[in-house]
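Quality-control log, excerpt.
Job 1 of 2 completed; input and output follow.
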Amino acid sequence: MSKQANKTDQYRRRFLSNAAAAATAAVVPGLMLFPVAEARSPTEAVSNKVRWGMLVDATKCVDGCNACVTACNNEHGLEGHNRPATDAQWIRLVHLKDKQTGKETKLPVMCQHCEHPPCVDVCPTGASFKRADGIVLVDRHICIGCRYCMMACPYKARSFVHETLTDQKPDSPRGKGTVEGCNLCVTRVDAGKLPACVEACQQEGEKALLFGDINDPDSMISKQAEKIASRQIREDLGLNTGVRYHGI
């Protein structure tokens, strides 16, 4: 066999092999979902030298203030407080009361952006993933709406979109039949801005929310964490959350 014929035969073998693999993926999509999800992950664009986090000072959350919730709804095109129960809510205000002392505390709860996120562990397609900088996201292109992540999340921080959506925000696309949750306003963060909830809280003058790089000892959030005691919600799970709370 000539060299040219041998090269042609090798090319044909590679082509047929790739075609067979593509056909297998078309018949059994699940076989290819994990490598595809990894290939589409944006972690290459960010660095693990940074880990974005938030410090919530519950002692500064005042009654009647819902600036963080309103800002989140406006930023991501969510509805108002009178929306149906099936609509999404990326951040919610939780009221706590100590049965012994009667002390009442209000705190915002959202995706905690865990170092070891249970939602990522149970996702069968790789749609739930964590960026190198610690932000936990959902790729709605490959989310199949199984809602395993909703069941796995101990913070009830994810929502399923039941309704057909209109007038969506260009920087925060959403999709019917998919799961979503707080993404720390990732497009704003990548542009060097604060998450909408943090910005709104500061504009109100309360400064209950502090955002920054918790890996940087010189960042404002790290310095504040050294001054005041803070804790995780459900510390017993060992998830090492990116959101910490003071005053609970």
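Job 2 of 2 completed; input and output follow.
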Amino acid sequence: MYEVTGSAALVGTVLGVRAIPMFLLAPVSGVAADRFPRRRLLQASQALAAIVSFAVGAALALRMVDVWMLFAFTILMGASNVIDRPARFSTAFDLVPREVAVKAVALNTIGFSLARIVGPAIAGYLIAGVGAAGCFFVQGALYAASALMVLAVAFPAPRAKTGRSALADMQEVLRYAVADRGTRVLIVLGALPYLLLIPVWNTLFPIYAKDEFLAGPQGLGLLLTAVGLGGTLGGFIANALARIERQALLQAGWVVVMASAIIGVAASPTLIIAAACSFVGGAAEMAHTASNMATVQMSAPETMRGRVASLTMLYPAMISTGSFIAGPLADLVGARGASIALAVTAIGAIAVLYFVTPQIREMRHK
């Protein structure tokens, strides 16, 4: 989008429309994860992603791509993610005992982080070498392979049907999330970096690579790979700290570390220093995410774990919402100024939550 239009606001907007399927489908996907075989849900989500990727690759190869296609692609890929994530994260709790659930979620985040390392590192050179169309064809093939790999997982038997309607199931989880004070705090704490900090990776890093460091797609690949490398370390850190009882307080600390790393990126005179700060930010992001995803689901009743997991789909929706803020803000004050403003706001929000909400200081998980 930035290559076609040169507009940071449109980069933020095209990422922001991912919020549409997330807000509309998240409750439905959670109900589906509790009511239908999770193997089929995972396969369906990956098949949809593969089809969309091949379609966009074909449009690029035929020089038929337009701005509206990028918006359509983003919405459909957002729908794929909404179908996938509740089933994927709640499955981790089905496959392992509760006492190692945090470690299982941490290993899952390590898998995502490894993809973030390999993907951007290859994609930058693929785009430079074979163009965006070739990159999308490779992506589509990998999604198709992922759908096939689900066949190797031994899923537990589906739970017995309750006889209630899907609407009743959605209402139940929403009532639970509103009534349970600990869950409310964890969801707010989990959504905060997705709203204010992670949009820096998605929306502002292309601008850093192109305009601030004059590094092109390879520079963007380096920055995103640094985030992924840090995320892998963050997954191992979350694994090591899984037995700490005050996970909410730990999550608040990780948000502050991530915000400080983004300020470091904004102050960096060179691409290498920015990549080093991105590494730290990626580690804090994944350590925070692993802890939060696990504690939200550990606090939930087993019968609604898939539905509670769907509430965490609001987090990626927050990235999209934050992109609407980050893009226009970068047009006004530049990528560096926007990064600092978002990071300082996040630190201020954590300070307010710490002093106003006792659950962050007192909440314990065993």
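Post-run check on job 2. The mean pLDDT is 82.
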